[in-house]
Structures
1.
Amino acid sequence: MSRQTGLTKEEPQSLVHSNQRPSVAPACDVYENNDEILVIADIPGIEADALKINLEKGELLLEASRASSAKAGALLGSEWSDCDFRRRFAIPSGIDASKISAELKDGVMRLHLPKSAALKPRQIAVHAG
């Protein structure tokens, strides 16, 4: 049995080790302000060099693989298993793809999708006369 919570689908954990590597959609929050769309994703146990972010045809793909670092014998149960993280996002038109940036700190990725000047709100000056 699985349950749906917010943006992720959680599968129940099993105490029996399986050779099948699970794939997980990381939990994400998406914010928008005048300058950018910001995606914050929880991807615990991932190093920056294991994180791949690709943009193609208006779709952003986030992928990462986590491997257990400590092998202290036969695995009897695990709540911190090897897994693959994978998430797709449709990128709206008007995002400046050349300025997309990301940082990863303490298992949290912050992906900045800057808006082009055409999408940013602007004040129109009113001249008297």
2.
Amino acid sequence: MKKNIICISCPLGCRLSVSMEAGKVTSVEGHSCKRGAEYGKTECENPVRTITTTVKVKDGSLRVLPVKTEKPIPKDKIFDFIKSVKTIEVSPTVNTGDILAEDVCGTGVNLVACRALT
């Protein structure tokens, strides 16, 4: 089976042709750099995404606080992850990089603050 995807690892946006057999990548063609080959393999075997969103702030100068995952999570866990994050509410005195939730949805990935909140 062949999949055609566009690489997003660098600004070139190479058109990749990924060959697969039994759920495993056998070849990646069309990439201009090593990152493209790795992206094609990962995207077809185990796609992941870094999630950026906001959480509610209780009694602060801001209504919401920008947050993100410490590292990418499996693509099939995104909706469960967002649903879980919507329940989080933080109070002031948060520093950039503070962990606001650990191992969200059993992904092993933490949710961190993207800015300070005083």
